[in-house]
Amino acid sequence: MTQDELKTLVGQAALAYLTPGALVGVGTGSTVNKFIDALAGMKDRIRGAVSSSEASTQRLKALGIAVFDSNEVASLPVYIDGADEIDHQGYMVKGGGAALTREKIVAAQSERFVCIADESKLVQTLGAFPVPVEVIPMAVARLSRQFAALGGSATVRTKDGAPVLTDNGQQILDVRGLKITDPLAFETRVSQWPGVVTVGVFAHQKAAVCLLGTASGVKTLTF
Ligand code: 5RP
Question: Per residue in 72-96, pLDDT tens?
Fold first, then answer.
């Protein structure tokens, strides 16, 4: 099976985790797009979605799925999202699509994080994928020095020669060369640095379940 087919498989498998008549938290990315497409087939059985990005909102609305503001909702039974890396404890690196801040917000208001990913995302230790960090632009140089002191190398994410701006109007630093052996401590520490909006390590908002697309079908990992 191709990586795209594995993403379709886990996107469809996530439908089993929805609560009938309730809202669902929806992440961002190519795997989540497969989930949104599958969700369209049963949109009448859910109330709607809380979305983690403008891109997902657009896709949901185009398929006739109602999108609610996160401020209108106290809690969600489930949040479905992909990951750039997930380890055997359910800790993740996320933000490859620059949506990490809103993803963390919706994950935090959800009772259960169901991660959908193809098997290439499963790792022993987080950090081979450059860790995305959403930052306030005036803090870029200082934060880059702080990551260098941890052994990392930070670069501003660009597209067509200009910094990528998030849905919140901020920039992304991609940090290479880190080996994150204690994701909880790393997230806690970096989150406190002035100028950091969100660090793309999801340890406090880790996955409860991972639906992993493998050559032999969907493997369910629980944490
Ligand atoms: C977006 C994310 C995505 O979940 C992550 O990048 C995985 O994306 P994909 O499903 O396209 O591989 O965190 O900010």
Answer: 999 999 999 999 999 999 999 999 9
